[in-house]
Amino acid sequence: MSCPFYPRGSVEEFTTITRRRPGTRVILMGVTSVDNGPGSTSAPRIRSAPARRRPGLGLLTATLVTFAWVEAALLLADGGEPWWVPLVLPAAAVVFAVAGQVASMRRPHNRMGALLMLGALSMLAAGTAGLAAPAASAVGVILATMPLAVLVHLLHAFPSGRCRSGISRLIVVAGYVVSIVLQAPQYLFEPSQSMRGTLALADRPDLAAVAHNVQIVVGIAVMVATAVVLALRWRRATPARARVLAPLYLYGGLAVLAVPLIPDLVAPVTGLDDVDAQLIQGIVVGLVPLAFLTALMVGGFTRVGELEELSVRLAADDRDRLAPALADVLGDPSVQLAFLRTGADEFVDADGHPVMLPEPGAHRAAVPVEVDGGRIGAIVYDPAAADDLRTIRAAARVIALAMDRQRLEVELRAEQRAVRESRARLVAAADRERERIARDLHDGLQAQLVLLAVQAQQLAMRPDMPQAASEDAVRLRGRIDEAAARVRGLVFTVMPPLLVERGLVAAVEDLADRMPVPTTVTGELEVPVGEPARSTAYFVVAELLSNAVKHAQADRVSIHLTRHGGVLAVTVGDDGVGGTDGSGHGMRGITDRVGALGGTLKVNSAVGAGTTVRMELPCGS
Amino acid sequence: MRILIGEDDTLLREGLISVLERDGGFEVVAVAHTGDEVTRLAAQTGPELVLTDIRMPPEFTDEGLRAALRIRVAQPAMPIVVLSQYVQRRYAAELLARPSAGTGYLLKQRIGDVGAFCADLRRVHSGATVLDPEVVELLIARAGAAAPLAALTGRQHDVLALVAAGRSNAFIAHVLRISEKAVVHHVSHIYDHLGLAPNDDDHRRVLAVVHYLADAGA
User: Fold this and answer.
1) Closest by CA position to A327, among listed A316, A341, A317, A337
2) Contacts of residue B142 in chain A, CB cutoff 8 Å?
3) What does the alpha-carbon distance between residue A328 and residue A20 come to, in Å, rounded to a whole number?
4) pLDDT tens, residue by residue, B65-92
5) Contact flag B111-A454 (C-beta cutoff 8 Å)
6) DSSP string, A474-510
7) pLDDT tens figures, A361-417
8) Which one of B66, B88, B134, B137 would you mutate to disrupt binding with A, by most A Cβ within 10 Å of its Cβ?
9) What angle do helix axes A447-461 and A467-494 make, rounded to 10 degrees?
10) Binary contact (B111, A449; C-beta < 8 A)
11) Which of B72, B36, B52, B39 is nearest to B3 (CA)?
């Protein structure tokens, strides 16, 4: 674990995390329990809610379920027609409690589970209204419409269990006010609402009616505001998220509306009797927790690991797994790591490719990763998938050291890439320049030499020319022709016209034509090879042929050209003396050139066994 | 003789016209600036010989050669001379692939030797094949690398090169300062050696040799 690149203190801090490994238990189903133990003062400052054992959770669920049983039994004892009607609310409460338990186990840091438990509690409370005992019944009367407020709360709090915006918090509070505070006048001023009027202060049905109307109006306002907030949230979500959110929001909204509307509006219109209405209500409400639970588990809302588990996985020294491990833990498969290049205001990904950090307000967001107060990178994530900015900040602290360590490799990769690209650009630029020079020589100088020769000859042929001057002019023409021949040779060396005009195979055949020893060209290139591979391959062949004649004293040379996918392979073999190590000036030049384009050059040259050089060069697809 | 010129470079075109009209006494009937124009004007203006640069617009590759090959198909009797800044065995082989009227393949630099150049045009017009010495050198080097040309004597080599360039026995005798009888002797020996049938027709003799050389080792 010694790493010379890190400040001593940081390394210690990191090892503190890894030493905790024996005490870590990773339990299936994604529940991770790490006992921070009493020595937590020396633990790294991870401020996300630490995972704790939750013995109370099961107890709470068990208590709720027991209460539901008791309530159901008491309600059954009181009798009713048909017999199952009193069971609707306790049954719904059990579904809420179990869903809450599962959600809490799967997502220990997510408050959706707790909210579902609250839903169970509100169901049980509302259910007590039918009990015979006046005190118990009073609780039910007071909290009769609280399940609606909890439903609204669930919708606003999804997926993290926390209300993310001030507006949401305001609406949720308003929901509780409507369902609890505005409910009060109805039993305070209407004795018939509570058992034997125990809760009534005065018999003022008129006041109760006014309060009921106010409750309806504010309630509608809460629902409309909720619909607007959810619609906006849905529109801002990524398509994948939106697909999960749309059915959940629609169903949640339907449930919120169904509870008050089924008995008051739907039943009278459809002729549904009271019993059926209650059954439908119960089913609609009972499915709500299942809808939330399902939505929480699919579509990337699920966090399958915890931060502590992340630190353990990082300690496993599997650096390329950093981003995937983070994605698992944050429940966001789209998580990316952006590394800040030292001394450059540029972020790159793990492969060294430049990346842009998202703009504020985009579909993606970024949280900085810092080491010793200095920025080293960022976590780029999907804000819709993230349940809590604090969790991501904590994750940023956990991965900081591992990321800083990986950054050195990433920077190296980025630099290698930059150097490779720059070398390839240099080759391409040099080729363009060669081609331009060849064209200038060809179109300019050679044409002028032709005209000069013509003029010299015409001068020589002038009838008034003295014999000696005429002979001089002819000699001059001969010198001009020699110069032209040298320019032709120069053009060939710089950039052979045939390569541009007829491609690689024709140009290589032309090279073979000019060889003083038998030279064969075989192979096929069905697709023309583009620049810069074309001229690189040509100059490689030219150099190898020249070596075969000059150094290897070969009697026969063979050239083979093939192309497999995006790789051009050229093999040049001779029967010469062999024994070259490919370190000559010309060989170094072509080796550099091939390397600049990401190709390879292999020299096989045993003494007395000839020389075979194989070049492989990426040439586009 | 009425000549169609294909040349896109203004200065060279003017130089060519001056050589052809002033020194050669030819008539330039039309001037083409692209390969397609060469083909079209060859059909429209009815020249007695087509003289074209190989490298022409729009691609500046081998448009002139392709135009020449198209004319070969459309007007097989049309004598054609192609000019280039450099020579290729491949281009010579393509040009000579189809037995037809007079054919020339010359380096542009040969224009400078005005008299010889105009004489070459006349020979092509009369049905001869004229290859630039550099083309012949390429052909012989190529063939020599693969075939038993090495067994020829130096003098026979010289004769072979001149035969391939399209020269007559009289010309060869003059250049090499030997008797025509000696030339005939050399040519017959070369023919025996290369396994070619003896032939009195100069033009067909050239073609046979050129084909032998172009195909050797290919």
Assistant:
1) A337
2) 513
3) 21
4) 999 999 999 999 999 999 998 888 888 8
5) yes
6) HHHHHHHHHHHHHHHHHHHHH--HHHHHH-HHHHHHH
7) 777 888 888 888 788 899 888 877 665 777 788 888 888 888 888 888 888 888 888
8) B88
9) 170
10) no
11) B52
Pairwise CB contact (< 8 Å): A497 & B18: no
Q: DSSP of chain B, one letter per residue?
A: -EEEEE---HHHHHHHHIIIIIIS--EEEEEESSHHHHHHHHHHS--SEEEEESS-TTTTSSHHHHHHHHHHHH-TT--EEEEESS--HHHHHHHHSS--S-EEEEEGGGGGSHHHHHHHHHHHHTT-EEE-HHHHHHHHHHHHHHSGGGGS-HHHHHHHHHHHTT--HHHHHHHHTS-HHHHHHHHHHHHHHHTPPP---HHHHHHHHHHHHHHTT-
Structural element, H or E, at residue A14? helix A8-19
Q: Which residues does chain B have within 8 Å of residue A488's beta carbon, measured at their own beta carbons? A: 85-86
Picking from B11, B17, B20, B86 by the largest number of A CB atoms within 10 A of its own CB, the best residue to mutate is B86
**Contact indicator for B86, B75 with CB cutoff of 8 Å:** no
Q: A504 and A538 in contact (C-beta within 8 Å)?
A: yes
- What is the Cα–Cα distance from A106 to B203, expressed in whole angstroms? 95
Separation of alpha carbons A542 and A557, rounded Å = 12
pTM over 0.95: no
Q: Give residue for tokens 């007071």.
A: A142
- A521 in the Ramachandran plot: left (φ > 0), alpha (ψ -120 to 50) or beta? beta
Q: Count CA atoms within 13 Å of residue A436 on its CB side.
A: 6
Measured over the CA atoms of residue A94, residue A96, residue A99 and residue A100, the dihedral's sign is negative
Contact B138 A514 (CB under 8 A): yes
Asked if the ipTM is above 0.90, the reply is no
Contacts B62 to A, Cβ<8 Å? 501-502
Contacts of A186 (CB under 8 A, 6+ apart): A193, A208, A211, A212, A215
Are A497 and B113 within 8 A, CB to CB?
no
